[in-house]
Amino acid sequence: MNLLIIPRAKLPAAAWDAFVGAHRSGWFWHTARWLDYGLSLGGDRADLSFAVVNSASQLVGLCPLIREGARGTFEGAPGAWPLLTPASRSHGVFVEIERHGLDVRFRSCPVASPPPHCDELAIGWSSRVLDLAPAPAVLHASLRKSYKALINAVPPHQIHVDDRGELMSAYQAVHRAAGGTRPDETYQHQARWIDAGQAFLVGAKDAGQWAAFAYVFFYKQAAYYGSGPSLAPNLQHAIVWRAILEAKARGARVFELGWQGHGTDKERRIAHFKAGFGGEDRPIWVMALRGTL
After folding, report:
1. Distances (CA, A) of 50 to 16, 60, 137, 271
2. pLDDT of residue 293
3. What is the pTM of this model?
4. CB-based contact 134:107 (threshold 8 Å)
5. DSSP letter at 81?
6. DSSP 8-state code for residue 74
């Protein structure tokens, strides 16, 4: 079968995202929206993502790939694994990747089906994933004991769920004040995802002022805790708990809280916080080309 490599820029974003939506291993990290966000981070970045198309102009595979300096990563971490089909696996997808001469890293997504032949890959680290099938009372019982009092200490009227982007300016202000340095364009992307129903915000006030938020991705009946800026102590526990309940109410099957056993000392402290909401650690399968994991 004659297959062609097509740069992402020459493919309609709707066609790219439709393939992601239909692929069993595809999740939000594969979408054109997320790749556009990655490019908006600025600096020495370029989009090398490509699709594999057959002779009938049908999309049979795609590879998200952003160059950051001399590496193929996403904010320094492994990017989303290429999405392939039986028709495209025999094609030189990895040859196409390697021709750029980059140190490239890929990873799987714990809330989507793992890539094929993952037993041949390495388990780089894990991510905490909460099964949302049990009743709220059962989920509450699995919380770390100390969290229950912290959650109960925040009155429900202080916490607000936003699925229209009305709190984006407040979220950006809190994120900035908490040390966030992302370009303004990244927040515009986040607002569009909320408008598209692919994310929502949970915020809390302290002394009448917005003081903490959780930005949650929502895609393919799975939620991901993406960002949690806070300017006041002991609010984030109640916010994340509310986000978990909100995701369940929206029909999410699972809620990914985030990576475990990976990153800096600060990131490990955050991982400990996330582990307190229950769930289990699921492996993140990784692969490195022209480099080490």
Report:
1. 10, 11, 45, 33
2. 43
3. 0.94
4. no
5. P
6. B
